[in-house]
Amino acid sequence: MGQESDIKHPLIVNSSENHALLQTEDKCDKYDYLVAVACGAIGGMIDIFLVGAPDDSVLRSWTDTQADNAVKGFAKMVGWNPKEAQVGNVASAIGFLERKFKVKYDQRHSSDVNNLFNMSTKNHHMKSLSHSPDIIGLFFSLLNQFKSTSSFIADGQVITINTETFDLQGGNFIAKLFCGIANWFGHIMSDIAGSSGSRGNAGRGTGVVMPFYELFQFCKFGKFSVGKDKQDLAAIATRAFQEGYDFRFGIASAIPVVITDLSIRLIWALRRYFQYGKPVKECIPTHKHADLRVMLLFGNGTLCVMDGIDAGVRSGGNFLAFFMRLNLVAWFRFVTLVLKEVCIRAGIADALQMNIEAYKRINEALLLYLRELEKIDIALFIKETEEYNKVSAVFTSAKSDKELNVMLLETFDRMGFNRPWEGDFNDHMSNKNATLVFE
Known about the structure:
The protein has 18 helices and 4 strands. It is mostly helical and 439 residues long. It has a two-stranded antiparallel ribbon with strand order 1-2. The protein has a two-stranded antiparallel sheet with strand order 3-4. A hairpin with a 2-residue loop joins strand 1 and strand 2. The protein is elongated, with a radius of gyration of 35 Å.
């Protein structure tokens, strides 16, 4: 049995690629924990002193500038050709995009929606679902463009109103769908750095929300202190957006998260390569390595702890100030890592990984069989198959065993096959020492 188990099937290759499909059982040592906490602390210091809140953020001015440059670059790409005096004017670029990518779901005031709910220019990008730069925004934008409607979140509910008829360009559904996606993206770019009016008056303008931030409007629970008032979480999130907690500030918030993540991955890879002598292929930082996942958890956890303590100390009991100083990107990243690790430890991710491995092995087997099939002489195979079909047809026409025997002998002679017996078949079979030899 031991020898049989060692026999290698051509499809079961003991290759490094197959080994890489399996999760490693790496464990952290004390230096891994120290590195993770140190990287998280560095990210926390950047978050405290350079990100802070929208009204006192050092990095926000830089990310605002990058957003302006992106808007101007996109506007030039789609046809913006300003005069020499307007080349660096972002308000001119925004105005061009507003005219080029018009939509019917751009209501800005309560009066624009028949006073069904309260809305202003400072929060209409959050209330309008089609203005969200995520899959939810894309879905509602296409829905609103095809059906000539506008969809909003107000008082924890989705409200849809009819608008003027809006005809998308394109001769068929696919073309209209493509135009709808392009129109949605272009309109998002016209709003991401504020409106042309607000930027033209030297203001910062109200941008668009971070991805999925609009879902906070469904959080109609809690009574949090904001000065002398008590407000729910939905109202807190809306006020934070109105005071600058938008997509541009979200980019600033992501910087310490990215630095923490990349620094941990870099040090982990360098240790494996130089200290443990691992090949480069095994030093690629992926989530199949348990020690790296734990390091990322500790690093991002350290960042979030420092961020939470800073927000609590500086807010002075004002929940709006506390919310605006929270790095939502860091907390979302940390929660995602925790949930993913829980799934792995509970075996949920392992089952998914096994399915992925199975599909990879099936693909490897199919490729091997394909290579073997490519070696077959198709013309010769067809010729031989046709000959066999003719022989089979002849055999079925035999009316007796004697006639079938004659046909069989004639076929042996015609196709050049050696007979497995010598002389007369009956005499051969009557000899107990005779054997049939098939070649």
